[in-house]
Predict the 3D structure of the following.
Amino acid sequence: MKEINIGLIGFGYSAKTIHFPIIKSVEGYNIKAIVTGDPSKITDEYAGVSIYKSYELLLEDKTIDTVIIATPNSTHFDIAKKALLSGKSVIVEKPFVTTYEEGLELIKLAEKENLLLTVFQNRRWDSDFLTVKKIIKEGLLGDVHTYEAHFSKYKPEITHKWKENNEKGSGVLYDLAPHIIDQAITIFGNPETVFADVQSQRDGAKTNDYYHIILGYGKKRVILHTGSIVLSDGPRFQIHGTKGSFIKYGIDPQESQLKQGRNPFSEGWGEETNVTYGDLITNYEKIKKEKIKSEKGCYENFYIDFYQSLINKEPLSVKPYEALNSIKIIELALESSELGKTLRFR
């Protein structure tokens, strides 16, 4: 089996906790090199992997086929552009970039260089979202008119991490919104309109820590929400249609499992317990309420699919224009909040 040699640029939480163990579990990949400014992060687990102090040095390594960019959001564009110009395919941690223009330039460059460019939208493979997508696809709710997704947290104290500084690509709108925006447009496509309220609610906050986005699709409304002072959250998903509703609490377990040192080979990987199974309430001949077992989450499928795209020329599972449209929605959300009005998706 042909191997893809991977270079990891950045070795913070995402690369170390999520990308590295998942890639190691998928056949056909070889993690060849890591870029980190902190050599203390490199333990015996990473023996045999080349360590570079800068991404420029890694890009000179001709044996590397694909790079994964897991660096602060504001650096994604510059690193991705240089990686493509060095002849390497690119996987970017979400968010893709910080502006629509940056993303469009990268897509055109990848097309010109005949290289792959994609974004790690891992939450397409969340157990809860896969369940929601299946229920909608099977028509169990009839015509969906309201779709609501929440991704909140309880973090009342301000930290000094880059995500909470006043810089390009910071705040929850670039951190958490790319997940649930991507999920929404995966099901419904691009919206007709965008309305948003974006705020900094915590005392001393330097960037946004709250948003409420409403995407319009004719009469259908897709509501996406994040708060940072939410000690006890409500449903993660609420979907309502002409024939029923689906209410789902809890969150996919994969990230939590990865933090525990588990991986896709571990027993129970990606499986929720029945405590967080969603409630399906339908009204066909009579009102019926039942628990729906959650689908199995599978972040590894992103890398399984990418292998097929690079080696066997199969279509990418996360197409760059899809990720670009998420960035457009984020930009429109910021503009809508500032102007206080609904904007057309243009």
